[in-house]
Amino acid sequence: MTKVSITEAAKLTGISKSTLYYRYIKTGLLNAEFIDGVRRIELADLVKLITLHGQEDDPVELHQPQINHERLVTLLRQQLSEANQREKLLIAQIERLISIQQTLVNQYATNSTDNLLA
Questions:
Q1: Under 8 Å CB-to-CB from 30, ≥6 apart: which residues?
Q2: Nearest CA-CA partner of 49 in 61, 63, 64, 32
Q3: Tens digit of pLDDT for each residue in 39-53?
Q4: Residue 58 pLDDT > 80, yes or no?
Q5: What is the pTM of this model?
Q6: Beta-carbon count within 10 A of 71 CB
Q7: CATH 1.10.1660 fits 3-83, yes or no
Q8: From CA 14, how far away is CA 70, in angstroms rounded?
Q9: For the residues 10-31, what does the mean pLDDT come to?
Q10: Do 5 and 60 meet the contact criterion of CB atoms below 8 Å apart?
Q11: Which of residues 36 and 60 earns the better pLDDT score?
Q12: Side by side, which strands form the sheet with 38-42?
């Protein structure tokens, strides 16, 4: 999953870092975890936050820039690409397991037939 720093999240959403931290992270509305000493937010959670709380009227933050849609789209495309790669890998693993299972079934059937004939 794609994670962004609080600074990146602020740039993407147009919400100040302090508002992200105090209004959303400290109150539990947004999860953040430390990775290599930097607080990181799951991109999917950030998108959910924008969807649910993006329309709030906040007179203190009226000067904030609009959401950086291009950057958000780029990150979402990256996340989708990663998900597609994981899906392809999982499908390949499933196909391999089915092949192994079929081989084992065939071996069992051959051994059972040989035992009956002996």
A1: 20, 24, 41, 45, 46, 49
A2: 32
A3: 898 888 888 877 776
A4: no
A5: 0.48
A6: 14
A7: yes
A8: 13
A9: 86
A10: no
A11: 36
A12: 3-5, 38-42, 32-35
**Quick check: 19 and 59 in contact, CB under 8 A?**
no
For the record, the structure tokens of 7 come out as 């600074």
Q: Which two tokens stand for residue 109?
A: 């059937």
Neighbours of 31 (CB within 10 A): 11
Handedness of CA 22, 25, 28, 61 (dihedral sign): positive
Q: Which residues contact 3 (CB under 8 A, 6 or more apart)?
A: 33, 35, 40, 41, 42, 43
Question: Which residue has tokens 């820039």?
Answer: 65
Q: Which two tokens stand for residue 54?
A: 């993006």
> Are 16 and 48 in contact, with CB atoms under 8 Å apart?
no
Per-residue pLDDT, 54: 60
The runs of H, that is alpha helices, within the chain are 6-13, 17-19, 43-53, 69-117
